[in-house]
Amino acid sequence: MAGKFTIRVDLSAVFIFLSVLVIPFVYSTAVPDPSLSPRVAAISLFNLAFIAFLWAQLVKNRDWMDLNILKKRAVVFYAAYVFFAGISVFYSINSSEAVFEWMKTLTFFLFFCLAVIHFSGEKENVTRLIRLIVIFTLLISARGFFEIAAVTRQYQFDHQASYFIRAFSSNRNLFSEMLFLTLPFSVSGVFMLKKGWRILSVAGALSALILIVFLLTRSVWLALFISMLTAGGSIIIFRRLFFHPGLSQIMLRGSLLLLIVLVSGIYLFSRISNAEIIKKQLFWVKNYKYGSSLERTVLWEKSIRMVSDHPFTGVGQGNWRIAIPAYGLEGMRSESGEVLFQRPHNDFIWVLSENGIFGLIFYVLLFAVALYYGFRIIKQTPDKGDKFLALALTAGLTGYLTIAMLSFPKERVEHQVFVAFILALLVVKSSGLNPPGQNAGSRLKIPAALSLVWLLAASAAFISVSRLVSEVHINRGCRFRANKDYTGVISEMNKAATTFTTMDAFSTPLAWYRGEALFLLGHQEEALISFRDAFKANPNHLHVLNNLGTALELSGERTLAKRYYSKGLEISPRFSESLLNMCALLYNEKKYDSALIMLKRAGDSIVSARHERFLEAVLGRITLQAEKDSDDRLLAKTIERISNDKSWMIKVFRRSLKTGNPYRQELTEEAIYLLESVDSTIGSDQAIFYREKYFKNR
Predict the structure, then answer these.
(1) Contact indicator for 208, 240 with CB cutoff of 8 Å
(2) N or C: which end of the chain has fewer CB within 10 A?
(3) Residues 519, 495: contact at Cβ < 8 Å?
(4) How far is 198 from 192, CA to CA, in rounded Å?
């Protein structure tokens, strides 16, 4: 009789495998950001499945796993941060977007809790994690080197070409950040693993470092420097724990190897590119008043103003991108309405502006306690492997915090997975230092607590999958829009719009796409309704304000239309579409001088047939009025000659922009010059008389 065949599933092994080698590789070009919403959906479904399994096991046997480790301060502070992020939803401009972003934050927290639970089991789970991350590092590094080779066959490898290197990330910078987050584990593998795995760990660390050099991401360079300072400082402070003959030799070899790798990386880079590029990147690190560094400081300044308006509640989770235009876009890339900033490029300012001061306090406390855990492990653990692991994790965490001050890693799923690993390992290893019984306490009411957690995880999974489906429809709708298939746009945006999806990934309301399509199809009344809905979703979107104003003007509500045009121009004083539309409205009201002010504000930034038509029409009216207002027949006749030549009027207008004089004054000056210097109709005395008469207040 055949024996019974059974398969024993190691839950922790499956958890680690899926976390490291599945979730970070989920990718779909069917959505605008191929690596964001697909991975959010993947991790939310992942949480749901593991919480369900955990719930079932613990209901059967409450002693199967001790959950009291979730009472550690880091977990409590993380939970408090999630709580205040949830509270901010009630103060948000767009509650639909706030709920989705809060559910994403909750998803990351639940994953962190699952990681704590799984790593609190067998010690083998830690080495298993390190091995899989080493494999992950080698896989993404191989992809990165392959892309570099492909790029160098077509272009000289420089700063612009480096943007083509993204591996399985959405862009170069995110790829570089991901490589950095693998380093603590690869370095730990060098000290903790044996034989072949140690060699692979060295290969992983070296390949990640070389790619970090090649990718030219300044925030990661700075993070690497800070993490090395942290590691070096920790070794000096705890030198008695590290320096004995065996360890000293290993650390010396490791330091020399690191130096060789960095020098080799720079040398290889100079062979396929120019070492001057690295010098320029280093220049931009310390000179923050130029380029993208300046742009970030401007965004931070505006975000602090936002905080001063909403210090305790914030503007709501996920609502920074909606609120920021209200603080002005003049002089920024976004003033044209084509670029819409989605993040302040500083996670701490982001948390503060969206979740308020209490949200930031608990967010900072989470990392402060984690760093404390790291230094405590280094100081107290007798296990050499744990000591080096804590050193690498602590150094890596300080590097991550550096990146978080210059970028937006809290948004990215793969980043948060690896940060959760770092935090969870520090929590678990620190807990292991406690005396027996210190971690004990009243047991959690498992059925009730896990039932609530599972419902939250199920809600997060439902919302994230719904969002993913919506983004697929949004992507299709945008393709229809590019092909001018406006019926297709309406159909896809209707399918995309849900309770939890009101905007696309770039802050543009779905109702705006629908309204634009309806307007172009001639359905003006329906378009107006859609534009009103778009305004509710994002009241600071330049195109929403402009199109809503246009729809209102066409429906006869000129006063209301002017209000929306004006709001758009308060946000971006040189926004061309609103300037021209306001100009047209004022022209129709026969307020020609006011209309000219709109055109003058645009300056030379607008070059279009519509702008030229408006300019000719407004200048023609003002020039004609100047002719009628003139009490000197000779001067009036000369102004009439100018009015008969559109290009001449525009030439005078352009000169008024340069001199800063009013157009009428420049027009009169042109007429006087014509009479005196070209026609010789008047002498210099008469010209002086004219100038004193008409420009006496100049």
Answers:
(1) no
(2) N
(3) no
(4) 8
Q: Which amino acid is at 590?
A: K
Tokens representing 458? Answer: 């199920």
**C-alpha to C-alpha distance for 598 and 259, rounded to whole angstroms:** 59
For 65, phi and psi rounded to 5 degrees? -155, 135
Q: Is the dihedral of CA 27, 33, 37, 40 positive or negative?
A: positive
> Two tokens at 120?
């609190």
228 residue type, one letter: M
Cβ neighbourhood burial of 487 (10 Å; 0-12, 13-18, 19+): exposed
Strand, coil or helix: what is 671? Answer: helix
pTM of the model: 0.91
What would the pLDDT profile of 375-396 be if each residue is shown by its tens digit?
999 999 988 889 989 999 999 9
The string of DSSP codes covering 344-405 is: -S-HHHHHHHHHHHHHHHHHHHHHHHHHHHHHHHHHH---HHHHHHHHHHHHHHHHHHHHHT
Q: Which residues pair with 501 in a beta bridge?
A: 498
Rounded to a whole number of angstroms, the CA Rg of the chain reads 32
Q: Rounded to the nearest 10 degrees, what angle do helices 446-482 and 486-496 cross at?
A: 170
Q: Which amino acid is at 665?
A: Q
Residue 503 — φ and ψ, nearest 5°?
-135, 160
- CA torsion sign, 350 to 351 to 356 to 357? negative
Q: How far apart are CA 168 and CA 124, in angstroms?
A: 28
* Mean pLDDT along residues 4-21: 76
Q: Max Cα separation, the chain?
A: 127
Q: What is the pLDDT of residues 166-225, one digit of tens each?
A: 999 989 999 999 999 999 999 999 889 998 999 999 999 989 998 998 888 889 999 998
Which residue from 491, 477, 496, 478 is spatially nearest to 37, judged by alpha carbons? Answer: 496
Question: Of 543, 549, 551, which is closest to residue 572 (Cα–Cα)?
Answer: 543
What residues contact 579, with CB distance under 8 A and at least 6 apart? 569, 598, 599, 601, 602, 606
Helix axis angle, 510-520 to 542-554, nearest 10°? 40
| Neighbouring residues of 156: CB distance < 8 A, sequence distance ≥ 6 | 272, 273
The first and second tokens of residue 653, run together, are 């207008």
- Which residue from 538, 559, 536, 535 is spatially nearest to 548, judged by alpha carbons? 535
Q: Which amino acid is at 474?
A: I
Place of tokens 């634009």: 516
Tally the residues of the chain. 698
Q: Tell me the residue type at 375.
A: F
In the numeric block, which tokens belong to residue 660? 């800063």
Task: Mention every residue, 6+ apart, whose C-beta is less than 8 A from residue 320.
Answer: 303, 306, 343, 344, 350, 353, 354
What would the DSSP string read from start to end of 37-80?
Answer: HHHHHHHHHHHHHHHHHHHHHHHH-TTSS--GGGGSHHHHHHHH
Q: What is the DSSP secondary structure assignment for residue 169, as one 8-state letter? A: S
Q: How far apart are the C-alpha atoms of 498 and 101, rounded to whole Å? A: 15
In the numeric block, the tokens 């002693």 are attached to 63
Query: What band does 456 get if pLDDT is binned at 50, 70 and 90?
Result: very high
- For 129, the token pair is 């994690």
Span 406-422, pLDDT tens digits: 999 999 999 999 999 99
